[in-house]
Design goal:
By secondary structure, this protein is an all-alpha fold. The radius of gyration is 18 Å and the shape is globular. The relative contact order is 0.19.
């Protein structure tokens, strides 16, 4: 009897989980809380799905092409992207510390294309792009794209469920919801700031190794 090799499935789940952690729906719901409160469930889900499609297309491109996008298309080193992305993340973290969750709406600005504004910078960021490159290095292009699709779909499904929970709880526990958003938003700032510093340091290490 032939033994079933579970390693490919384990690697696939690890890759999907890597991207899912960075697409943390519990943080995403805080980032887009203004959209959650303004839109009803159906248009909110539609906008979120459109943002997911945009993000999936970008992630798949980076998973398939990997570092070649930076070295051949942009003619830049991936370390430069890590440093710049870390600085952007650091600015977002600082805005969260001083202004709370409303900072993301200020950074996002008033955009007519709400799906695109959610896709960038909520879904598509330095961390998720880096994870896509890593996933592409681990798997064949088709498997890498499948891992990306699974991670994005699971994240969107969780955000929609959190939107449902928000709409059910808010009429009766609005002060509790506001306190939760404020506390989690401040905690998110620590998470974002830590990731940003790590990205900057990794980029600098790569640059220093060249000299």
């Amino acid at each position: 009897m032939q033994n079933f090799d579970v390693k490919p499935m384990t690697d696939f789940l690890r890759s999907a989980a890597l991207l899912l952690v960075l697409l943390n729906p519990f943080l995403v719901i805080i980032y887009i809380i203004d959209v959650v409160q303004k839109l009803s469930l159906k248009p909110f889900t539609l906008v979120l799905m459109q943002a997911g499609l945009i993000s999936t297309a970008v992630f798949c491109c980076f998973a398939i092409l990997g570092d070649a996008i930076f070295s051949h298309v942009l003619q830049a080193n991936f370390a430069s992207f890590q440093i710049f992305g870390g600085i952007v993340f650091l600015l977002i973290g600082l805005e969260f510390v001083f202004q709370g969750p409303t900072a993301i709406s200020i950074l996002r600005g008033e955009s007519k294309n709400l799906a695109g504004a959610i896709a960038m910078p909520i879904f598509i960021g330095p961390g998720t792009i880096s994870a896509s490159v890593v996933i592409g290095e681990r798997h064949d292009p088709l498997v890498a794209c499948m891992a990306v699709v699974v991670a994005v779909c699971v994240s969107i499904a969780f955000v929609v469920l959190l939107k449902l929970a928000h709409d059910l709880v808010r009429p009766h526990r609005e002060p509790f919801i506001e306190r939760y958003i404020e506390v989690v938003g401040r905690i998110a700032a620590l998470f974002i700031g830590t990731i940003s510093v790590e990205m900057i340091m990794q980029g600098l290490i790569v640059w220093f190794e060249k000299f």
